[in-house]
Amino acid sequence: MRERRIGIIMHGVTGRMGTNQHLVRSMLEIRRQGGVALRDGTRLMPDPILVGRNAAKLEQLAAAHGLERWTTDLGRALRSKDDTVFFDAASTQLRPRLLKRAIAAGKHVYCEKPVATNLAAALELCRAARKAGVKHGVVQDKLWLPGLLKLRMLRDSGFFGRILSVRGEFGYWVFEGDWQSAQRPSWNYRKEDGGGIILDMLCHWRYVLDNLCGEVRAVSCLGATHVPQRWDEDGRKYRASADDAAYATFELEGGVIAHFNSSWCVRVRRDDLLTLQVDGTHGSAVAGLRRCFTQARVNTPKPVWNPDVPQPIDFFAGWQEVPDNVAWDNAFKMQWELFLKHVAGEAAFPWDLLAGAKGVQLAELGLKSWKQRKWLDVPRLAP
Q1: Which of 14, 23, 50, 273 is exposed most, by the fewest CB atoms within 10 A?
Q2: pLDDT for the residue numbered 91
Q3: Mean pLDDT computed over 26-40
Q4: DSSP string spanning 270-339?
Q5: Same domain (yes/no): 135, 208
Q6: Do the domain assignments include residue 383?
Q7: 213 shares its domain with 116
Q8: Above 80 in pLDDT, residue 383?
């Protein structure tokens, strides 16, 4: 077995998601399994170098996972010819500048979303990467969640017939930080720091809808800041200037209607933190992060509206669970493997900076729709 090293500059992975999903459950797992298998029998072995501003955190993180390479000198890391891929999971506001530096240094780039806080900056990144001839990708992890993979299988099998509508419920209660610590960083709730659930989540819903249900054609969005005051990581009270809830309706190609409620101010009484219900002429499905339940046309009960008697139908009993016929891997890891194969020249990778720009476009239009209180068309972005 031949092994081929690929050096990866991992920037901003000391945060919760960067550490857990990208470093531990993706990069280190790929190394543990012996790399990524290429068609010619070669194993592509990632060799990460951790980069950030806090030396103590980097050293501690590297030591905890048996890694020797870390640095606070991003410029030096970018100058290294031994590391050909740059990954960023730091704050959204800094991302365009960081990616531009990496592209100028000739690195292939892979990053978290949103890729920028506005469409102009996102498209500028895409043009820069194409001009430089580097390969590029954006994390669109939810496409590889077991629940959504099951939805895709149902769609491809024709289970739904003609898809009519999609309903998404996302969110949970994020504590304000006064009497219980918040589960999300405080910058998420400050508009001036790139925060806001519309910018964060509409980027997700764009790629989910485009890939599973139909390309987004128009949007109507209402945002809200339900909790106006919160407390940061140091216990200091601050004003929440960003939206913490979004209520968005999308028109998709083929006349499909999708509605998503996204909120960090909702208490959960559903199957999961994210649930998607897809209704079609031949059947419906409800998917969470991992599980998926279906109800076919022939199994659909026939309710009659009568508020004067107890409901005689157990509506949950008429749904069947889609079985786990395969072993599902980590969603972030699966996309990392695809991107590394792409860098190695083996496969196309459609989840690139243009796909990331489409998410930013929808978020920008969602914010504009909220401000103008009107429906807005979503123009096609030129490739």
Answers
A1: 273
A2: 86
A3: 97
A4: SSSSEEEEEEESSEEEEE-SS-EEEEEGGG-------TTS-----TTTT-EEPP--SPPPPHHHHHHHHH
A5: no
A6: no
A7: no
A8: no
Mean pLDDT of all residues belonging to the chain = 96
Q: Are 23 and 61 in contact (CB under 8 A)?
A: yes
Q: Do residues 155 and 61 both lie within one domain?
A: no
Length of the chain: 383
Query: What one-letter code names the amino acid at 71?
Result: T
* DSSP H/E element including 26: none
The tokens describing 44, both together, are 């592509």
Q: What's the total number of domains in the chain?
A: 2
Of 141, 158, 183, the residue that ends a domain is 141
Which one of 141, 171, 202 terminates a domain?
141
In a domain, 60, yes or no: yes
Answer whether residue 338 is part of any domain: no
Question: Residue 146: its pLDDT value, please?
Answer: 98
**End-to-end CA, the chain:** 39
Helices (H), 71-218: 74-79, 95-104, 119-132, 146-157, 197-212
Please tell me the distance from the alpha carbon of residue 139 to that of residue 210, in angstroms, as a whole number: 15
- Whole-prediction pTM: 0.95
CA 54 to chain CA mean position, Å:
26
| Residue 117 shares a structural domain with residue 64 | yes
- pLDDT (0 to 100) of residue 1: 67
Q: How many of the other CB atoms lie within 10 Å of CB of 158?
A: 10
Residues 169, 219: one domain?
yes
Instruction: List the one residue out of 290, 213, 287, 262 whose CA is nearest residue 370.
Output: 262
Contact (Cβ atoms closer than 8 angstroms) between residue 17 and residue 89: yes
pLDDT at 347 (0 to 100): 86
- Residue 65's domain comprises 3-141
If you average pLDDT over residues 303-318, what whole number do you get?
Answer: 94
- Residues 301 and 154 grouped into a single domain: yes
User: Is the pLDDT reported for residue 344 higher than 80?
Assistant: yes
Tens digit of each residue's pLDDT (9 = 90 or more) over 51-103: 999 999 999 999 999 999 999 999 999 999 999 999 999 989 999 999 999 99
